[in-house]
Amino acid sequence: MAAITTLRRIESPPLFLSLPSVFTNPPRSSCALGTRYNSTSSSQWKRRQVRDVFVHRAKRDCLKSRAGFKLIELDLKHGIFRRGQTVVDLGFAPGAWSQVAVDKVSPGGRVIGVDILPSQPPPGVSTFQGSMKSVGVRELLKKFLMDPERGKMREKRYLRKGDVDEQELVEIERDYLDRERDIEREEKFGGAAGFGEDDVDVGMERPVDVVLSDMSDPWPIPALTYRKSFDNVFIRLMNTSGIPVQDHAYSIDLCYTALSFAMDVLRRPGVFVCKVYQGDQEDELRARLELMFASVCCDKPDSSRSESREVYYVSRGLVKGVTKEKVFPEGSY
């Protein structure tokens, strides 16, 4: 039986307000969040953005959106990432989670993002545009993942001090600090989540270490509507319908889609992270996660808005011998 831990919201100030930067290696790309189109309905959104400290920090740290802080907080609490891992980010647009993942698993790791909407990928991320409900998209993604060199970030190596500039020397120093950080994380969270050598997958049949799912059901594009505004990922994916039952049902369906994919590619021990909007089907989701993983934690990060119904499940340690027929007896996924 899986051990389930529910983590409640911390009442102390957010963890990241005192941190100088969220990145080990700050990106060199432009630092801009998405543009919001002017309309009467967006005035409340604009006022909230002005007051939101995480929005300002995202701009400062060159994050694609404030959602990146949620993953940073989850990683600090649960030790999701290690250097050199393979990470699949489902619903990656606009790319903040992928940015964080790249920083955590480089050098030597790889991050693959998938989204149904067109979006410019962050540096270091390989992406697919398509629906995870499509069998064809899943098969293409699996084929890509089976080659361990595809999408892999290369580690920089230097022979002489004169061969590098000051910025590259800083990166080498950080590499040493990263190794120290990895040792500390291994001691805190454990390297194999209590699994023996026989239970750890080392081949490419299961090539993925972490599956992230921050998927949301995109708004449909109405007929006779100016398409550019609705194709913008910041508009179509950063909104809910306002109907809690509908948002909950859609999020549960997407979680099951991600979970089904994770069962095909996630190695033991692996980590599965999914977002869900709370509702009456949440207990069923929790029960399915219990069947599949050795430990399951429910968390609501401090960077998640208090009025939001979203929570995140962090599941670790794929149970040996689990089958889709056992987790999804109805056969829908």
TrEMBL record:
SUPFAM superfamilies: S-adenosyl-L-methionine-dependent methyltransferases. Belongs to the class I-like SAM-binding methyltransferase superfamily. RNA methyltransferase RlmE family. InterPro entries: RNA_methyltr_RlmE, RNA_MeTrfase_FtsJ_dom, rRNA-MeTfrase_E, SAM-dependent_MTases_sf. Residues 64-317 form the Ribosomal RNA methyltransferase FtsJ domain. GO terms for cellular component: mitochondrion. It comes from Tuber aestivum. The keyword Nucleotidyltransferase does not apply. One of its GO terms (molecular function) is rRNA (uridine-2'-O-)-methyltransferase activity. The keyword Chaperone does not apply. Transmembrane segments: none annotated. This is rRNA methyltransferase 2, mitochondrial. It holds the Pfam family FtsJ. Keywords: Methyltransferase, rRNA processing, S-adenosyl-L-methionine, Transferase.
